[in-house]
Please model this.
Amino acid sequence: MKVLVISTSLRPRSNSHALAEAFARGAAEAGHEVETVSLRGKDLRFCTGCLACQKTQRCVQADDAPDLVRRMHDADAIAFATPIYYYEMSGQMKTLLDRANPLYGSDYRFRDIYLLASAADDDPHTPDRAATGLGGWIECFERARLAGTVFAGGVDAPGEVEGHAALAAALEMGKSVGDR
Model:
């Protein structure tokens, strides 16, 4: 399987990026073809709502989103890694989901979608709104499903996730990609 891992944090040594790396390592160990992409340093503009992509399956904007959307289209599984800001996914993750509008109505390959999240708050419900937001996007793709989530709570400073149980959970989830 082709597995795409998208790390949406813009912070160096991000805790959510560490989850992405663990997931990617697990998927690679399971024999999958894995690509990890970071939104850090990418030119990712807001969707303008012109809906031209609904006719052409291409965005009219010339930034990094069309390439990312093409990679999403061609992946069998996608894992999104995000820090939780104000109890929601990062703005750059939401922007990418909006810009993935050309996928709607296309013959996309992805089936399994994963959410990897980290936050300073350690309440187990902290990522619920991010999961709901991603779930709304997934509902637009009838062949796709939310296949799993991992949450690292109680981590704030860069690299603080080191040694957290969520890293092992992300590794194991990566190893299980494709299991139904």
Summary: The chain is about 35% helix and 20% strand. The helical segments are 15-29, 53-56, 65-74, 91-99, 128-138, 165-175. Residues 118 and 152 are 5 Å apart (CA to CA). The first helix runs from residue 15 to 29.
